[in-house]
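Appendix B, example 12.
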Amino acid sequence: MRKKVTVVGAGNVGATCAQELARRDYADVVLVDIIPDFPQGKALDINQAASVLGYEPTMVGTNGYEESEGSDVVVITAGKPRSPGMSRDDLVSTNEAIVSTVTKEAVRRSPDAVVVVVSNPLDAMCHVAKAASRFDKRRVVGMAGILDTARFAAFVSQELEVSVKDVTAVVLGGHGDQMVPIVSATNVGGVPLPELMPKTRIRKLVDRTRFGGGELVSLLGTSAWYAPGAAAAQMVDSICLDEKRVLPCTAYLDGEYGIRGLYMGVPVKLGADGVEEIVKLRLTAEEKKMLRSSAAAVREVVGVLKKA
């Protein structure tokens, strides 16, 4: 029996995620947006590519949620994107109401779904979705670490002129400028990164990763969408297919890594039940310190959210 996935928000990120899922061809995809005719047009366009790319045209676009009933996964991309000069944190008050509303609408029709949050500011919006859905913490998870890790891996690949397929990396912490690329866990073909380049070059790549989203906003005039959409689709794969992949995702911590009551980016085992396990990495003293700083920054944003 085919799975069913609903993607809320038919903008650039949502449509990219929906297209990637359509190409996998294991799920019926429902694309939801409030703009009249917009998700219907996106769905029609993606369905018309099916014969060219070799998948079944089973996508539906809609302005309501009736068609989403019984979804296995709900991906939330709805909300305003960043514009030049705007931080992810600036979006808190704007996107809180949007994410809360769409989450309630979606889970009312899919009470057994796993919710994947993509909307920014990601860490805070995970808290919003968890509160709105009233789901167990395992069934509300955020997409950030896969994207941040992909950026770090791309920069390492380009710097060393090696295949990105041979780069293993991981980025933890909040999805903001305080994110923590874990250099101690990064290698190329099994060779630790510090053995391949000096600390000064590594530091430049770490800083570029931290501000990677802002770099793209300055170039595009809005947020990125190809890599975020693909990252969200990878999470849906692991959930729908019960792959139990170990992926860096934004999960609710209850004491892990010394952090309690906060959504943060950490490695998790992602399966049919959502976050099935939080994987503990051995961090250096410096990485632990940076992770605590990142957690403090996330708490500030969540604090603003609770006062809003």
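The first strand starts at residue 3 and ends at 8. The mean pLDDT is 94.
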